[in-house]
Amino acid sequence: MSRSPSLPERPRLDLDPDMTPEERLEALRDHFEDIVRVNEQLTEQLNDARDRRQDLTDEVDQLERENETLKTSSLYIATAEELTDDGVVVKQHGNNQEVLTEVSPSIRDSLEAGDRVAINDSFSVKEILDPETDARAQAMQVDGSPDVTYDDIGGLEEQIREVREAVEEPLVNAQQFRDVGIEPPSGVLLHGPPGTGKTMLAKAVANETDATFIKMAGSELVRKFIGEGARLVRDLFELASERQPAIIFIDEIDAIAAKRTESKTSGDAEVQRTMMQLLSEMDGFDDRGEIRIIAATNRFDMLDRAILRPGRFDRLIEVPNPDVAGRERILEIHTEEMNLSEDVDLRAMARETDGLSGAELASLATEAGMFAIRDQRTTVEQRDFRDALEKISQDEETGSQPVAFA
Ligand SMILES: Nc1ncnc2c1ncn2[C@@H]1O[C@H](COP(=O)(O)OP(=O)(O)OP(=O)(O)O)[C@@H](O)[C@H]1O
């Protein structure tokens, strides 16, 4: 801050008793001139001070306005990494920038290392995020014991065999791999059209091996949890190691592992970071114990080949739409609990449903049941299946969604 200029000295009048009246008059005149000069200087300084005060008032107003905006503007998400005597080290999500920042005593008392916090533009910690708003809980679906079995999956015998070999065997028979001296496949990639049973396959292996099933959807990572993708991927593997044996299932992996594009927008950079984190987790995977990783995609063509290298997703399993025998089996599975009339011919329905996925066949069975209910019957007849098929084909033409099916 600039120092205020010093005040001019007060003029002094020195009258000598020996002075002649003329000399006294002269001295008084000089004194009068000095007073006028000092008065002018003081007036000038007073005016300067008034201007300065006005400037400062304007500055305060502006700062107050900025402060208000800061208080109401968005906050960034960070993790409190370390609590030190000099302050708190926070790491901002997204760009991983680490800063030492101060925290108000009221927040400091309840803050622990590892907490997710909201920080403002000046990196000051504004609040500690509630664990309920924690993205980790929202982004991952954890199922201690999924109830899907291999018997619930129709028409994928070959795929089930491959998944058992690549995922189940290394989990239940790890010693066998050690004895032979080979590494089991690190990751298995299931690829094929939507609704063909990829998620079911992953859940069934988890069930069969008594492993925890942990699912994360790639699309949600990039859409819902912007800036947190890489951290969530790290958390995913951490959680799996806490809950092993575990099956990590990454659905829609294409959302985070698409081929690199030329553009360098921040969104792309963020997706890249998420993918790099996934690759590094997979590369350090050998010593992770009883964790297996399965990913799924409907867009195999879009994948960055880097994720298919040995030691990463090196076992590819195609999960296509079911053939006629597969469709019949899927219809049998999904009508098992239904009260079917004698005339129902599932084989005939299987022949008529070429191109339908497992999920669509599941909806077909539900829709058929709905037609029976509409007709106030408790038995489902062949005509209900035909009506349901017609409805599903129409829905497909108009683009509306088939009945949601568990
Ligand atoms: N092969 C199948 N056998 C029995 N049911 C199936 C089969 N495929 C799909 N379904 C039914 O469709 C539903 C959805 O299947 P699932 O979620 O496993 O498909 P997905 O391949 O993972 O789909 P997406 O690619 O859209 O994620 C299942 O809950 C099940 O009811």
Automatic annotation (TrEMBL):
Keyword Hydrolase attributed: no
Domain AAA+ ATPase residues, every copy: 184-323
Basic and acidic residues bias spans: 9-21
Binding locations of ATP: 195-200, 334
Pfam families: AAA (PF00004), AAA_lid_3 (PF17862)
Swiss-Prot/TrEMBL keywords: ATP-binding, Chaperone, Coiled coil, Cytoplasm, Nucleotide-binding, Proteasome
Coiled-coil ranges from the UniProt annotation: 25-73
Bilayer-spanning residue ranges: none
Entry's localization field: Cytoplasm
GO molecular function, one term: ATP binding
Cellular component per GO, a single term: proteasome-activating nucleotidase complex
Domain of life according to the entry: Archaea
GO biological process, alphabetically ordered: proteasomal protein catabolic process; protein unfolding
InterPro entries per UniProt: 26S_Proteasome_ATPase (IPR050221), AAA+_ATPase (IPR003593), AAA_lid_3 (IPR041569), ATPase_AAA_core (IPR003959), ATPase_AAA_CS (IPR003960), NA-bd_OB-fold (IPR012340), Nucleotidase_PAN (IPR023501), P-loop_NTPase (IPR027417)
UniProt key word Chaperone: yes
Main location: cytoplasm
Region span, Disordered: 1-21
Role, per record: ATPase which is responsible for recognizing, binding, unfolding and translocation of substrate proteins into the archaeal 20S proteasome core particle. Is essential for opening the gate of the 20S proteasome via an interaction with its C-terminus, thereby allowing substrate entry and access to the site of proteolysis. Thus, the C-termini of the proteasomal ATPase function like a 'key in a lock' to induce gate opening and therefore regulate proteolysis.
Domain notes: Consists of three main regions, an N-terminal coiled-coil domain that may assist in substrate recognition, an interdomain involved in PAN hexamerization, and a C-terminal ATPase domain of the AAA type.
Subunit relationships: Homohexamer. The hexameric complex has a two-ring architecture resembling a top hat that caps the 20S proteasome core at one or both ends. Upon ATP-binding, the C-terminus of PAN interacts with the alpha-rings of the proteasome core by binding to the intersubunit pockets.
Protein family membership: In the C-terminal section; belongs to the peptidase M41 family.
Protein name: Proteasome-activating nucleotidase
